[in-house]
Amino acid sequence: xxxxxxxxxxxxxxxxxxxxxxxxxxxxxxxxxxxxxxxxxxxxxxxxxxxxxxxxxxxxxxxxxxxxxxxxxxxxxxxxxxxxxxxxxxxxxxxxxxxxxxxxxxxxxxxxxxxxxxxxxxxxxxxxxxxxxxxxxxxxxxxxxxxxxxxxxxxxxxxxxxxxxxxxxxxxxxxxxxxxxxxxxxxxxxxxxxxxxxxxxxxxxxxxxxxxxxxxxxxxxxxxxxxxxxxxxxxxxxxxxxxxxxxxxxxxxxxxxxxxxxxxxxxxxxxxxxxxxxxxxxxxxxxxxxxxxxxxxxxxxxxxxxxxxxx
Length: 311
Known about the structure:
The protein is of the alpha/beta class. The protein folds into 3 domains: 73 residues, Multidrug-efflux Transporter Regulator, Chain: A, Domain 2 (Orthogonal Bundle); 127 residues, Periplasmic binding protein-like II (D-Maltodextrin-Binding Protein, domain 2, 3-Layer(aba) Sandwich); 100 residues, D-Maltodextrin-Binding Protein, domain 2 (3-Layer(aba) Sandwich), CATH 3.40.190. Helix content is 34%, strand content 23%. Strands 4, 5, 6, 9, 10, 11, 12, 13 and 14 form a 9-stranded mixed beta sheet that branches. The chain has a 3-stranded antiparallel beta sheet with strand order 1-3-2. A two-stranded antiparallel sheet has the order 7-8. Helix 7 links the parallel strand 10 and strand 11. Helix 1 packs across helix 2 and helix 4 crosses helix 10. The termini are far apart. About 6% of the residues have low confidence.
């Protein structure tokens, strides 16, 4: 049996000088014949030649076109770069990979402020935020307007979740309020600058007129909710701030709820019609996704998938 040259959708896109998403749409419509090997799509050269000849109004030919095998580099507009740290984003990514196995989905584990800046700079195209503004007592919209000036965005709810304090089992130091963080015998562990939890803390300290220098451990930073909870569980700190979900994953800590927060996804409005973003929004509104998230505990999905604001 003679060997047939086979190409990836990316190679076809480069040859035809079109987006690889257009190639996938052509395959989906049946305009271009392709087959699947595992999770990968492949196009044989004769089928590509048939498509090209049909486009030219010619009859199919029996010869194979010599094609380049060099693949183009990944670009953000050809995939989805999702910023955020919550475990539900791992589940969301798995749903996306199942729905669109030919698309590249990347994660960046950074905080809310850095995520919005990445969206502004074009190094990410789907970012999460839980940034509380004390002046308006609202989440995210004031920060989106200030950090993405002139950019049209959609703010889509992912979940509502509880933010609060991680303390040692039994809460031996009886830590209950923001004011308790400044007690001299209390050791605190903080989140990095720009994280939603750090913004919430700093806003509360400002409202209560508490100088952060009075908090022992304010400069001790960890890069995730889970790392903060783990630090408290190991006895390296008496208290830290984070989401309830992380407390459910660490046995040696108790959780003191302080504020219900809104955790949103922010995308550019111009991206919403692209296939990968359409799939993203569809999954967020799906019953399957809602059921999976609600079964994990620690999440309020009453508004999950809803567009809450546009800028």
